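Model it.
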Amino acid sequence: MQGGLYLDAVLVAGAGKPEVDVVMDDLKAKYLGQIAQAGDEAALEAIRLAAVGKKGEVALQMRELGRMTPEERQAAGPALNALKDEINSALAAKKAALADAALDARLRDEWLDVTLPVRPRREGTIHPISQVTEEVTAIFGELGFAVAEGPRIDTDWYNFDALNIPGHHPARAEMDTFYMHRAEGDNRPPHVLRTHTSPVQIRTMEAQGAPLRIICPGGVYRADYDQTHTPMFHQVEGLAIDKDISMANLKWTLEEFFSAFFEVEGIKTRFRASHFPFTEPSAEVDIQCSWVDGQLRIGEGDGWMEVLGSGMVHPKVLAAGGIDPNEWQGFAFGMGIDRIAMLKYGIPDLRAFFDSDLRWLRHYGFASLDQPTLRGGLSR
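Modeled.
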């Protein structure tokens, strides 16, 4: 190698330090000049390998130290180390300069005039179910109802027995209810995907006692599927317990809710006698409506539409919740959140709620910051 020849010449000539200095000066001038001329990091890496790599010229010069006399080694060793440090420093400085130049070029290419008008940006939307749940919560919150929640998987005692639903009731059949699988020998009570949010009422009565005023929104499950039914849907149930509550209080509460929710003053309601195991007396509730040119109009006309079931809480249900039915009484009601969302916002098919179709969500969705309040307006 060229470097070896330089030191060979030194050894043969016996000239010592002056020749070493000449070699070092030549290597320094050679590589510092190449480093200064390097145009990119690839060229810089090639120079590094040629100069200070394991097989580079400086490394080869280092190997020649063993052939020198102690006096020559004492002069050549520090000179080679100083040269190696100087080349490495020059390489690092050039690499930083190349990186700065690349950043400057990138900044010039990616320059943006921030005073230009922004491009329209699509924002995510709130699902109608979430929106209507918030609307219902806001209305009943103004009426003094708190929100209660409970597990979606519950025992059949909370889902059926505590609600006065007997073992032979059709709702307890496997064709209507999703039962959780139990391993052979498992003696725990059967668990089900809750078929309504009424178990939350029992759990809240157990935990808080009376008096009580709550709503229980949430997802529920039943084995049904068509244009107006899906295996999973959403309900909100209400419960009010006190010492002097009557059906008149129930009627007033529901009429106030309908007027606020549909944003129509004076909506008429009609109560029809019915039967539910957990209320006595029980009533189906219809609201006033009409059809004009195929469009449903709530709160006008002489038609009626069923929207929910209600009644006075059965004494056995109060007792199951740990409340003395001889001292307390109350009313309860339940309605489908999906159903009232369809009525209010003109959504024709319940199954579309669960299709995850972005076009549907953009059409029926709500602005993410559209927080419903009675004072600010429930809907857009």
